[in-house]
Amino acid sequence: MGSIASKRIDHDTSRSNTHFLRPRATARILRLSVIATLYLLIGIAIPMQLFADPAAEPAAKAQRRARRSPKPSPTPMALPDDIKTQVPAYKLGPLPFHDGEQLVYQASWIGVPAAQAKIIFHKKKKDPTRWVPEIWVQTNAFADVFYRMRDYMRENIAVDSLQSAELYLVQHENSRLNYYTVTFDRPAQKVTLLKENHKGKQTREFIASNPYGPLSGAMMALTQEFAVGKRYAFDVFSGSQRYVFSFEVEKRERIRTSLGDFDAWRIVPDVLYLSDGNLRSQAHGTVLWISADKRRLPLRIESQAFIGVVRADLIEIDGRNTVAER
Fold it and tell me: Are the C-beta atoms of 274 and 241 separated by less than 8 Å?
């Protein structure tokens, strides 16, 4: 199994030269959800916040020890009624991205570059009715000293509805290597999470009437109409967890980035529900900015850390490090 796994991870990650930082403690929240879209951007700041906090990893280990003998959960699991009522069904709006679009982000902690991530939006060659966006996320040489990560994600999404059929995720962090496959059965209102590693296979099932993967959920969110005071919530499944993620449009303001100056929506995210009941507070203290134009570019995310600030910035679009405002 080990040799096969090594071949698979080499195939998945050799297609990108990007880097990204993520501590093990946050593997349960939006693992890559995390960059070129709302969820992907938040997926940078949350893990880096824990990396910057020396007390975070020991606390996570203590939580894992406390959960070694958990009470069995009902299968399949449904959302609590008070959470379910906060998650509406959304209609697809104008698509802000194009086939072949590429976005590259650089993440840093207290000003020190630690990682990059690359996302490509493209349609399936043999079936143009399906989006197959992909993400590669890797730590750089500096971050590898503390925590080495080589992750990959792709999702199979309907073009006409942005409904996901399947999510595939590889997590290769230090010596740990896990493969996740999430299947979405909308007619049956069921989502199945499959985890595979050298120890074998684990399966979890959930009841969900309007589920998304990290990429499909972020893509749908970016098609919605933004205005000050608007709030959105999505039922999202990552490789190992289910979470209900919300965000509120706080205000519109001007920001400066390496790509230029932008009018941007200032977005405040929150995690309303996580299926294991932990880490909900990790989204607090996080702010992201989305360009206030038709492109809806996720420009930047910042999060307060134990020491300093973690930041992820959009640094490249379609191979260019400059962009004209539209």
Answer: yes
